[in-house]
Amino acid sequence: MRFQIIFFITVFLFAIVLSGCSSSETANNSTNTNSANKTANVASDSSNNPLATNKTPEAATTNNAPMLAPVVQAYYEALKKKDDAALRKVFSQDTLKSLQVDMKAEKETSMVNYITETEPVTDKPFETRNEQIQGDSAVAEMRNENYPNGIKIKFVRENGEWKMTNESPEFQSVKQSATNSNVAR
After folding, report:
1. For residue 183, what is the DSSP state?
2. Architecture in CATH for domain 69-176
3. Is the pLDDT of residue 163 over 90?
4. Angle at the Cα of 172 (from 122 to 109), degrees rounded to 5?
5. CA 133 to CA 14: how far, in whole Å?
6. Cα 24–26–32 angle (5° rounding)?
7. Are 136 and 129 contacting, i.e. CB atoms less than 8 angstroms apart?
8. I want to staple 150 with a disulfide (CB 3.0 to 4.6 A). Which of 7, 30, 39, 143 is the partner?
9. Helical (H) or strand (E) element with 98
10. Is 182 exposed, middle or buried (CB count within 10 Å of its CB: 0-12, 13-18, 19+)?
Protein backbone atom coordinates (compact mmCIF):
# COMPACT_ATOMS: atom_id res chain seq x y z
CA MET A 1 0.00 0.00 0.00
CA ARG A 2 2.78 2.36 0.95
CA PHE A 3 4.64 1.45 -2.23
CA GLN A 4 1.58 2.23 -4.32
CA ILE A 5 1.18 5.68 -2.73
CA ILE A 6 4.86 6.52 -3.28
CA PHE A 7 4.67 5.23 -6.83
CA PHE A 8 1.51 7.27 -7.54
CA ILE A 9 3.05 10.48 -6.08
CA THR A 10 6.26 9.94 -8.10
CA VAL A 11 4.35 9.43 -11.35
CA PHE A 12 2.18 12.46 -10.57
CA LEU A 13 5.20 14.72 -9.88
CA PHE A 14 6.96 13.40 -12.98
CA ALA A 15 3.89 14.23 -15.09
CA ILE A 16 3.80 17.76 -13.66
CA VAL A 17 7.48 18.32 -14.41
CA LEU A 18 7.10 17.05 -17.98
CA SER A 19 4.03 19.14 -18.67
CA GLY A 20 5.83 22.28 -17.45
CA CYS A 21 8.86 21.63 -19.62
CA SER A 22 8.69 22.23 -23.35
CA SER A 23 11.06 23.33 -26.02
CA SER A 24 11.61 27.07 -26.42
CA GLU A 25 10.46 26.86 -30.04
CA THR A 26 7.11 25.43 -28.99
CA ALA A 27 6.76 28.08 -26.29
CA ASN A 28 7.55 30.90 -28.73
CA ASN A 29 5.11 29.55 -31.31
CA SER A 30 2.47 29.21 -28.65
CA THR A 31 3.05 32.77 -27.43
CA ASN A 32 3.01 34.20 -30.95
CA THR A 33 -0.15 32.31 -31.83
CA ASN A 34 -1.85 33.48 -28.63
CA SER A 35 -0.81 37.09 -29.25
CA ALA A 36 -2.13 36.99 -32.78
CA ASN A 37 -5.39 35.43 -31.63
CA LYS A 38 -5.71 37.98 -28.85
CA THR A 39 -5.17 40.86 -31.29
CA ALA A 40 -7.70 39.40 -33.71
CA ASN A 41 -10.22 38.90 -30.90
CA VAL A 42 -9.83 42.45 -29.63
CA ALA A 43 -10.41 43.90 -33.08
CA SER A 44 -13.49 41.81 -33.71
CA ASP A 45 -14.88 42.30 -30.20
CA SER A 46 -15.01 46.09 -30.44
CA SER A 47 -16.75 46.05 -33.81
CA ASN A 48 -19.43 43.61 -32.69
CA ASN A 49 -19.92 44.93 -29.17
CA PRO A 50 -23.33 46.62 -28.87
CA LEU A 51 -22.13 48.46 -25.76
CA ALA A 52 -19.05 49.91 -27.42
CA THR A 53 -19.08 53.67 -27.73
CA ASN A 54 -18.96 55.14 -31.19
CA LYS A 55 -17.81 58.73 -31.29
CA THR A 56 -19.74 60.70 -33.82
CA PRO A 57 -17.38 62.71 -35.97
CA GLU A 58 -17.51 66.42 -35.29
CA ALA A 59 -19.71 68.33 -37.69
CA ALA A 60 -17.88 70.71 -39.96
CA THR A 61 -18.48 74.40 -39.45
CA THR A 62 -20.93 75.51 -42.11
CA ASN A 63 -21.33 79.09 -40.83
CA ASN A 64 -20.47 81.31 -37.88
CA ALA A 65 -24.12 81.89 -36.95
CA PRO A 66 -24.40 85.46 -38.24
CA MET A 67 -28.00 85.89 -36.99
CA LEU A 68 -27.73 84.08 -33.65
CA ALA A 69 -24.18 84.81 -32.50
CA PRO A 70 -25.12 88.32 -31.28
CA VAL A 71 -27.83 86.80 -29.05
CA VAL A 72 -25.35 84.32 -27.57
CA GLN A 73 -22.80 87.12 -27.07
CA ALA A 74 -25.44 89.21 -25.24
CA TYR A 75 -26.22 86.17 -23.05
CA TYR A 76 -22.54 85.73 -22.18
CA GLU A 77 -22.06 89.46 -21.44
CA ALA A 78 -25.16 89.57 -19.21
CA LEU A 79 -23.91 86.61 -17.19
CA LYS A 80 -20.41 88.03 -16.95
CA LYS A 81 -21.68 91.46 -15.80
CA LYS A 82 -24.32 89.84 -13.56
CA ASP A 83 -27.00 91.93 -15.26
CA ASP A 84 -30.44 90.38 -14.72
CA ALA A 85 -32.24 92.95 -16.89
CA ALA A 86 -29.94 92.29 -19.86
CA LEU A 87 -30.29 88.54 -19.35
CA ARG A 88 -34.09 88.77 -19.43
CA LYS A 89 -33.89 90.54 -22.81
CA VAL A 90 -32.05 87.56 -24.31
CA PHE A 91 -34.61 84.88 -23.40
CA SER A 92 -37.94 84.07 -25.04
CA GLN A 93 -41.17 84.66 -23.09
CA ASP A 94 -41.77 80.93 -22.58
CA THR A 95 -38.23 80.45 -21.32
CA LEU A 96 -38.57 83.37 -18.91
CA LYS A 97 -41.79 81.89 -17.50
CA SER A 98 -40.15 78.49 -17.11
CA LEU A 99 -37.07 79.96 -15.41
CA GLN A 100 -39.19 82.06 -13.06
CA VAL A 101 -41.16 78.99 -11.95
CA ASP A 102 -37.91 77.09 -11.35
CA MET A 103 -36.35 80.04 -9.52
CA LYS A 104 -39.38 80.37 -7.27
CA ALA A 105 -39.16 76.68 -6.38
CA GLU A 106 -35.47 77.17 -5.50
CA LYS A 107 -36.20 80.44 -3.66
CA GLU A 108 -33.76 82.31 -5.90
CA THR A 109 -34.46 85.91 -6.88
CA SER A 110 -31.55 86.53 -9.25
CA MET A 111 -31.72 84.89 -12.67
CA VAL A 112 -27.96 85.32 -13.12
CA ASN A 113 -27.27 83.50 -9.84
CA TYR A 114 -29.75 80.77 -10.74
CA ILE A 115 -28.11 80.12 -14.11
CA THR A 116 -24.51 80.39 -12.93
CA GLU A 117 -25.11 77.80 -10.20
CA THR A 118 -25.18 75.14 -12.90
CA GLU A 119 -23.33 76.94 -15.68
CA PRO A 120 -20.44 79.01 -14.32
CA VAL A 121 -19.25 81.95 -16.40
CA THR A 122 -16.00 81.14 -18.19
CA ASP A 123 -13.20 83.46 -19.24
CA LYS A 124 -13.80 82.80 -22.92
CA PRO A 125 -17.13 83.68 -24.56
CA PHE A 126 -19.18 81.14 -26.44
CA GLU A 127 -18.27 80.19 -29.97
CA THR A 128 -21.50 80.03 -31.97
CA ARG A 129 -21.69 78.13 -35.24
CA ASN A 130 -23.81 76.10 -37.64
CA GLU A 131 -27.04 78.02 -37.33
CA GLN A 132 -30.03 76.54 -39.09
CA ILE A 133 -33.01 78.82 -39.48
CA GLN A 134 -36.48 77.55 -40.39
CA GLY A 135 -39.06 80.31 -40.29
CA ASP A 136 -39.33 81.71 -36.75
CA SER A 137 -37.32 78.89 -35.22
CA ALA A 138 -33.59 78.24 -35.34
CA VAL A 139 -30.88 76.04 -33.88
CA ALA A 140 -27.21 76.87 -33.36
CA GLU A 141 -24.31 75.10 -31.70
CA MET A 142 -22.68 76.84 -28.75
CA ARG A 143 -19.24 75.92 -27.39
CA ASN A 144 -17.06 77.08 -24.54
CA GLU A 145 -15.12 75.57 -21.65
CA ASN A 146 -18.35 74.27 -20.09
CA TYR A 147 -19.39 72.63 -23.37
CA PRO A 148 -16.19 71.63 -25.19
CA ASN A 149 -18.10 69.32 -27.56
CA GLY A 150 -20.76 71.93 -28.13
CA ILE A 151 -24.45 72.01 -27.35
CA LYS A 152 -27.26 72.79 -29.76
CA ILE A 153 -29.70 75.41 -28.51
CA LYS A 154 -33.07 76.36 -29.95
CA PHE A 155 -33.86 80.02 -30.70
CA VAL A 156 -37.20 81.63 -31.58
CA ARG A 157 -38.09 84.91 -33.23
CA GLU A 158 -40.34 87.14 -31.09
CA ASN A 159 -41.40 90.58 -32.31
CA GLY A 160 -38.77 90.42 -35.04
CA GLU A 161 -35.87 89.63 -32.64
CA TRP A 162 -34.11 86.33 -32.07
CA LYS A 163 -34.44 85.03 -28.50
CA MET A 164 -32.69 82.16 -26.79
CA THR A 165 -34.67 79.29 -25.26
CA ASN A 166 -33.71 76.74 -22.64
CA GLU A 167 -34.41 73.93 -25.11
CA SER A 168 -31.92 71.71 -26.88
CA PRO A 169 -32.92 69.41 -29.73
CA GLU A 170 -30.39 66.88 -28.44
CA PHE A 171 -32.00 66.75 -24.99
CA GLN A 172 -35.49 66.75 -26.46
CA SER A 173 -34.70 63.63 -28.51
CA VAL A 174 -33.30 61.87 -25.44
CA LYS A 175 -36.34 62.93 -23.41
CA GLN A 176 -38.67 61.72 -26.18
CA SER A 177 -36.85 58.37 -26.38
CA ALA A 178 -37.16 57.91 -22.63
CA THR A 179 -40.86 58.75 -22.76
CA ASN A 180 -41.44 56.33 -25.62
CA SER A 181 -39.58 53.51 -23.86
CA ASN A 182 -41.63 54.04 -20.69
CA VAL A 183 -44.90 54.02 -22.64
CA ALA A 184 -43.92 50.73 -24.29
CA ARG A 185 -43.74 49.04 -20.90
Report:
1. H
2. Roll (3.10)
3. yes
4. 50
5. 81
6. 100
7. no
8. 143
9. helix 93-106
10. exposed
